[in-house]
Amino acid sequence: MSTAGTAPPPHPTPAANALATITTVAARLAVRSGHRRRPAGPVDRSLPVEVRALRRPCPDVAVLDLVPAGSAPLPRWRPGAHVDVELPSGLLRQYSLCGDPADRSAYRIAVRAVPGGAGSAEVHALTAGTRLRLHGPRNAFPLATAPSYLFLAGGIGITPIAPMVRAAHAAGIPWRLVHTGRDLASMPLSDELAALAPGRVHRRPDDTAGVPTAADLLSGMDDGAAVHCCGPPPMIEAVRRAVPAGQRFHAERFSPPPIREGRPFTVRIVGGPDVAVPADRSALDAVRAVRPDVPYSCRQGFCGTCHVRLVAGTTQVDTATPDPAGPGRTALCVGRAAGDEVEVDLGR
Amino acid sequence: MTATDDDRIALQARDVRFDFSGLRTDWIPGEPLASHVIDVLHMLLPEGERWFVEVFSQALPLVRDAALAEDVRGFIGQEAVHAESHQGAQDHLIDAGIDVSGYVEQIEWIFSDLLGERGLTGAEAREWLVERVGLIAAVEHFTAVLGEWILHSPDLDAAGADAEMLDMLRWHGAEEVEHRSVAHDLYMHLDGRYLRRIRAMLIGGPALAKLWTDGTAVLCARDPRLRGTPQRRVRLRDYLRAARRGLVPGPGMFAKAVLTYLNPRFHPARYGDTDAAIAYLAVSPAARRAGGTA
């Protein structure tokens, strides 16, 4: 049988020849199977919901109950999950689900108003009856079984932790929660959790207890406890470093941070067109607007999926960080032109 | 509290690094055969997982489900990092004086030529792409089963296996368990027919078995430390003995994996222990160094 379209094996052996024949047959069968293959149909998993109620347990925190706009129950979720909320303005924001996973008639989110934050300002202005669209839920902070848990929450970081606490409590697994914040009035949800088991909840406001160190947060923990931490990034980093080797440390995995202090530049694609990259967007985003099929994955420079050949110009992440793709290549997701323009070859 | 199908894990690559400069060729001390059975992965996976990345990147434009596309993207990044990590281990084997160039050339030929684009265009190229997605789904069932095995392999710790290599294998295994449904979901989305799925297993399963056997034989024959010893020749009974001692996955595990796959209602989410994967990623030294771990 002809093995058209392929080169001969570098080391001809009976097995190599057999494999060449088998793959040739497979390619022919694939083409035949294609005659009766139904192409993939569109799948829309977005969830239309309606704001049922909005309350404010703290002056700057809004808790929203979202109910399905149709009759179907909401998808199941587990503690640590989040949803992408499409706001009426079109802004997309991720919020952790902080209600009861067993309640499929409503999702609950809690949102702190961030000064200058367009998304949180819009959430705070929502009223009952407003229609929204959700995507997900997804879990970037899954809760797995452990002999015991230490939950550490900083401020609004209590949102994914709250359902974890309830799940651990319901399963009869020993747990402890430390919730930190500026002052008690800015620390939502943990008062309700304290009602479950007052002795297990330590609400630790900075104004009276001082700003805690990672060692303070971890003091008195069981050896086998799985540490689950959510809060401001410096808190997560400090705890990550302080948890002893061999002990479980869990934190939410976030999307890449927004681009700050970027400069606009132009990416010239071999074969055209030229693409303008704004200061606050990546070359990848700009290129995908004209070439939607450009592969990418981690969007942090390391996985290599979007690394392409750099034909002209030089790139860097910023003045202190070289382009992770190395010489002659650029990571579209994080590389930025050192000058005004670069030329890249998207071909493989 | 076991994570199940209703917990859709957000898949993201982890920026892990491994240092194999101090690794012994018998990284399971005194067990060169068991070490090399697992070392075959370092020769197969760099090319194999790069091929997964290539095929899935080409398949993404066919996906009409935004959530699945997100899964596929996460899968691609994880596989790309796996390939580089195993490449590091392969480079170490070569530095240790084991000449695997012939075997690796053959693997490159398989993935870039036999399983490449084969000069097809248009509708034929698309159908060959779907066929390869089916092949990857079959192979990913094995990687998930292997991931499950390495996450539950206390005998390797007891045997004093190298900590860096174990971390690499277990981090990899945990991510395989974490993303075990993606290739199957992609195949089911693009085609989904049972006989085609089984056909892919009938090709992928035996091919993988043959490549693994040959790879082990090459490593043992070329390992300079085994020169002049009887261990230079791989014997089936030595492999079976290592498998019984829990140092390598046994033949029964592979047979069971194939039988599971034959079930018309097979779905990877029903097999495998996501909790074990999450728990390992929370202690993995490499994942901890990489940051952003869940």
From TrEMBL, chain A:
Signal peptide: none annotated. One of its GO terms (molecular function) is 2 iron, 2 sulfur cluster binding. It comes from the Bacteria. Residues 44-144 form the FAD-binding FR-type domain. Pfam families: FAD_binding_6 (PF00970), Fer2 (PF00111). InterPro entries: 2Fe-2S_ferredoxin-like_sf, 2Fe-2S_ferredoxin-type, 2Fe2S_fd_BS, Beta-grasp_dom_sf, Cbr1-like_FAD-bd_dom, FAD-bd_FR_type, FNR_nucleotide-bd, MRET. Its cofactor is FAD. Keywords: 2Fe-2S, Flavoprotein, Iron, Iron-sulfur, Metal-binding, Oxidoreductase. The keyword Metal-binding applies. Residues 265-348 form the 2Fe-2S ferredoxin-type domain. The keyword Ribonucleoprotein does not apply. PANTHER family: CARNITINE MONOOXYGENASE REDUCTASE SUBUNIT (PTHR47354:SF1), NADH OXIDOREDUCTASE HCR (PTHR47354). This is Ferredoxin-NADP reductase.
Automatic annotation (TrEMBL), chain B:
InterPro entries: UCP07580. It holds the Pfam family Metal_hydrol. It comes from the Bacteria. This is Metal-dependent hydrolase. The lineage of its organism: Bacteria, Bacillati, Actinomycetota, Actinomycetes, Pseudonocardiales.
